[in-house]
Design a protein that fits this description.
about 260 residues, alpha/beta, Rossmann fold, 8-stranded mixed beta sheet, two-stranded antiparallel sheet, globular
């Protein structure tokens, strides 16, 4: 498969100029973290910034953003958890910001997931471009609701992709295959679980309205949306600029626990 690069994305997005396409990829790790922190602050009610005590990052990867958010919001690192599906995890800054890693356990036989954490623990949950990878979506959100405090906040950064957006789906699927950790994840599934060399895990894309409707059944209420810099949307249609992935930010609040 041809690797995705700033130049061969033209077969998906022919109206992107070379300069814009190249600029999208020019971002230092520090700038990336600072942008994510600013995105959250822009959506959170100003009155609660500095008052959040507990935080979990779902699908937190290498912990760089998790730590940046904790520091940016004034949350004690001892009260911060990073969560992902991988068995092995090496934290950044273990001396200056000691956070806890908890793996999501996936039981493909029973078709469910679990997170080994107590009920009603977190004021803030973040999902930075991770929801579309959730295995057994309903179970995962039941776990998220369980470990959140009533009234807690859920910040989401996701792709805004409707059912008919086949071009952007193809682009995103190919882009995923360029990441080493995702390649390793797929290889393990193919070799250990499905015994199928062509297996590709389902990716659950939502439109922003589709995700809002889905989350409403867990008693999440949308507080606000935030657009990515360079995004232009006209009546729900993206005018392709630097936001080729159709990314957007959103903030939800858990109104009450489902009985």
């Amino acid at each position: 498969m041809e690797p995705i690069s700033p130049h061969n994305t033209f077969r998906f997005f022919p109206n992107i100029s070379t300069s814009r396409s190249s600029t999208y990829y020019k971002c230092t790790p520090e700038e990336r973290v600072a942008t994510r922190v600013a995105d959250i602050k822009n959506l959170l009610p100003e009155s609660i910034i500095g008052k959040l005590e507990t935080y979990i990052d779902i699908g937190g990867g290498d912990s760089s953003i998790t730590i940046g958010v904790a520091k940016g919001l004034g949350i004690d690192c001892k009260n911060v958890v990073i969560n992902d599906i991988f068995e092995n995890f090496t934290q950044l800054e273990p001396e200056t910001c000691p956070i806890t890693y908890v793996q999501t356990k996936i039981d493909h036989t029973k078709r469910n997931v679990s997170i080994a954490l107590p009920d009603n623990q977190f004021d803030l949950v973040t999902c930075f471009v991770s929801i579309h990878h959730f295995s057994y979506m309903d179970d995962m959100f039941r776990e998220i609701v369980r470990i959140m405090k009533p009234g807690g906040y859920l910040f989401i950064r996701e792709h805004d992709v409707g059912k008919s957006d086949e071009r952007i789906k193809q682009f995103l699927n190919e882009m995923h295959l360029q990441w080493e950790d995702y390649q390793s994840f797929i290889k393990d599934l193919r070799n250990k679980l499905y015994k199928n060399e062509t297996y590709f895990p389902k990716i659950n894309y939502f439109s922003r309205e589709g995700l809002r409707k889905y989350l409403s059944k867990f008693n999440f209420e949308i507080i606000n949306y935030g657009e990515i810099q360079g995004t232009k949307v006209n009546n729900g249609v993206y005018i392709y600029t630097s936001n080729k992935q159709h990314l957007y930010n959103s903030l939800y609040q858990l109104q009450s626990k489902i009985q």
